[in-house]
Structures are given as structure tokens and as C-alpha cells.
Amino acid sequence: MSSTPMNTSHQIYSESSILILIDLQGRLMPAIDQGEAVLNQCIRTAKIAQLLEIPIIGTEQSPNSLGSNIESIKSFCSTTINKEHFNACADGLTAAIPSDRQQCILMGCETHVCLMQTALKLIDEGYDVSVVVDGVGSRKALDKQIALDRLQTAGARLVTGEMLGFEWLKSAKSPVFKEVLALLK
């Protein structure tokens, strides 16, 4: 993997980003605190990523037990990794990330389990990791908050969906500005 230190840039660039949607599965989402809001933010961000031609990878934890990702999520993912480990890297995530994409943007569930373990491994492997805080969830709000604190301490950048969307756009002169703005507002 990359030998450059993580978070070498304070900025997030659409051309070096990949969106990773963790375990937004039909049987899991009803148990997630504010699950509908989390899912809606993931869909909104995936639509923006699609407009900006940012690749999207999904993961599914033990799909034989928890079922597949929700159809509206599956439709955005060019690749979906079925996994048994909580850390998706152990089941092939890093191999699926294009070599020109060093900025991993993570969203999904559960913040304190699969998302956190995946993010920590990506940081260890030298990726620049951002977590969209309004697009992650856990069954309990405390678990989510402690995981976000731990991730930030470990070097992950915490962002909101709106912050990310405008950062990916860079300028109101972007050819997809109006479409993205409509999704953000």
C-alpha cells in the first residue's frame, strides 16, 4: 500500500475519493438509532458521488443471516463485498479500491463495529479516511459517539454530508453544481 502518511492533505478531492457504504442491510437498519435519517444521508451522498463519477463500493455483513443491502443502496454500488469479518479489509475491500483512490469516505453501520474496524484498518494501511457523521449509525447513540471519538483520535477526518458535497464540488462553476445543490439543500 501507499507509504505516504495518512491525511497528507486537509482537503477531500472528488478525483481521489471512493465512497464506501458499510452494511446498510434490510434486517439491520430498523434497529439503528435514527436509521431512516442515516439511510437517507447515505442515498443523498451516493447520488452526489454518482454525479461526480466517484466510485462506490458496498459491503454486506453475513448476508445469509442479515440479508442484502437495501435495494436503493445496492443500485449505487459498482462492487459489493460480502464479508464475515467486521473489518471489511479482511474480506477483500482494499483489493477492490482503485489504486488512484486514496481518500476513503465511509458511511453506514454499525459505527462502533464494522465501520470503525474497517476505518482503523484503512488508516493503518495508509489511506486517508473520512467518516460522514450524519451518515453513520449504531443501535445505541453512545456507541456511535464513542466510536466517532476513537476514529478521530486515530486520524479519521469527521465530516458532514453537506460539508463533503461542497468540498467535492470545489466551485459553483462545476457542471453538476445545480444538481448537487438540489441534493444538499
Can you characterise this structure?
With 185 residues, this protein is α/β, with parallel strands linked by helices. Helix content is 40%, strand content 20%. Strands 3-2-1-4-5-6 form a six-stranded parallel β-sheet. The chain is globular, with a radius of gyration of 15 Å. 41% of the residues are buried. Mean pLDDT is 94; it is low at 1-7.
What summary fits the major beta sheet?
6 strands, parallel
Indicate the percent of residues in helices.
40-55%
The tally of beta strands, per DSSP, is: 6
Number of DSSP helical runs? 8
Keywords:
single chain; 185 residues; alpha/beta; 8 helices; 6 strands; disordered N terminus
How would you briefly describe this protein structure?
This protein is α/β, with parallel strands linked by helices.
Q: How does the SSE layout of this entry go?
A:
Layout: E1 17-22, H1 35-51, E2 56-61, H2 63-66, H3 71-74, E3 79-83, H4 93-96, E4 103-109, H5 111-124, E5 128-137, H6 141-154, E6 157-159, H7 161-169, H8 177-184
Parallel strand pairs: 1-2, 1-4, 2-3, 4-5, 5-6
